[in-house]
Amino acid sequence: MTELTITTPDDWHLHLRDGELLANTVPATAEVFGRAVVMPNLVPPVTSVEQAEAYRQRILAQRPPENNFQPLMALYLTQNTSLETVRAAAQNPHVIGFKLYPSGATTNSDAGVTDVDGLDNVFAAMAELQVPLLVHGEVTTADIDIFDREKVFIDRHLRPLMQRHPNLKLVLEHITTADAVAFVESQGSNVAATITPQHLLMNRNDLLVGGVRPHNYCLPILKRRDHQLELRRAAVSGSPKFFIGTDSAPHAQSKKETACGCAGCYSAPAALPLYAEFFEQMNALEKLEDFASGFGADFYGYPRAATKVTLVREPWRVPEVVSTAVGPMVPYWAGNLLNWQVK
Ligand code: DOR
Ligand code: ZN
Predict the structure, then answer these.
(1) In this predicted model, what pLDDT tens digit does every residue of 292-325 receive, in sequence order?
(2) Ligand 1 center from residue 262 Cα (angstroms)
(3) Given CB 3.0 to 4.6 Å as the disulfide criterion, which of 68, 208, 259, 290 pairs with 294?
């Protein structure tokens, strides 16, 4: 196969950041993807519908000419999120749901949730109004090893949450473990998961063997190979519960290559070719389209795109560095070859 034409994909988990960097991040995604769920972990966080509307306008202002990219805004759930905000979100066509960051779990999560069970009335309203909850599933307490944080979050918080609210529409974001795959598979069709390219293509050896690789450092952290293999199985299984979500998370090179580096892989410049690389490795390129362009839209209740994109099998090297408004940035997979490129 030398060409692959698929329905235009969507990115169901994306960080665009704000300010002058939008001039780089918005086109990088909009040139390939039709829609993206835009994460709200700005400073200050996007906690209200009004803030999300204003942020959406700043994003739209950076769309390339004649591009119809649609940002779908996630609101940042806090311990103070009110039922009014849930109702306002349910009524707003540009807001897709709420993002739950456990406080301290990752970049700009300080304002996140400290007591999941204390938000039960909010979750009840979300279930009733069918407003999706997007979850960063990691506990943050010092007694839990960083490699166990996803599993413990599922056992401690997610299973009980789904028992209390069996109709809650829930996306477990950027899953990294066999435990997460099993949890999602054990639930009804209202529970799904996104999977990033780095968690499909890499495991923790790629982070730590032969030296620390800061550009492969993201959260939840890459896990051992057995977990990677289970994610790979789930992604090609044809189950509609697993779909694309790059978690492309740009940080300046100076913030990654430093004594205390930021978490996040800037995968947007190569996102679709990275997934194509994975599906080709699995001999399952025919499964790419549903994963990238179908199951996410189906889950969230959007029509699949009416447009197409074409990938060609012409190897190319991901740039070592890309220049952005906040300085040089090292994209994920920098300097390495990919077999597919977007035509
Ligand atoms: O690696 C990550 N980077 N994981 C997250 O959850 C957040 C993201 C970011 O915003 O940089
Ligand atoms: Zn993220």
Answers:
(1) 999 999 999 999 999 999 999 999 999 999 999 9
(2) 8
(3) 290
Ligand 1 atom nearest 173 alpha carbon? 6
In short, whether 218's Cβ falls inside 6 Å of ligand 1 is yes
pLDDT above 70 covers a percentage of the chain that reads: 100
Closest CA to 95 of 138, 140, 62, 51: 51
Ligand nearest to the CA of 13: 2
Residue 1 has pLDDT above 90, yes or no: no
Provide the residue ranges of all domains of the chain, joining segments of one domain with +: 3-342
Our answer on whether the CB atom of 176 is closer than 6 Å to any ligand 1 atom is no
Distances from the Cα of 236 to the Cαs of 3, 93, 152, 162, 177, in angstroms?
20, 31, 26, 26, 16
| Domain 3-342 grouped into CATH 3.20.20.140 | yes
Nearest-atom number in ligand 1 for the CA of 41 is 10
Between the CA of 121 and the centroid of ligand 1 the distance, in Å, is 27
Q: Which residues belong to the active site?
A: 247
| Cα 129 from Cα 338, distance rounded (Å) | 43
Residue 104 has pLDDT above 90, yes or no: no
Q: Where are the alpha helices (DSSP H) in 156-196?
A: 159-164, 178-186
- Which ligand is in closest contact with the Cα of 266? 1
Cβ of 249 less than 6 Å from ligand 1: yes
pLDDT one-digit tens code per residue, 232-251:
999 999 999 999 999 999 99
Q: Are 79 and 123 in contact, with CB atoms under 8 Å apart? A: no
Eight-state DSSP code of residue 283 = T
Q: From the CB of 187, is ligand 1 less than 6 Å away? A: no
For the record, the structure tokens of 1 come out as: 């196969």
Distance of alpha carbon 152 from alpha carbon 146, whole angstroms: 10
User: Whole-model pTM?
Assistant: 0.98
pLDDT tens digits, residue range 332-343?
Answer: 999 999 999 999
Banded model confidence at residue 110, pLDDT cuts 50, 70, 90: confident
Give the integer Cα–Cα distance in Å for 248 and 331.
9
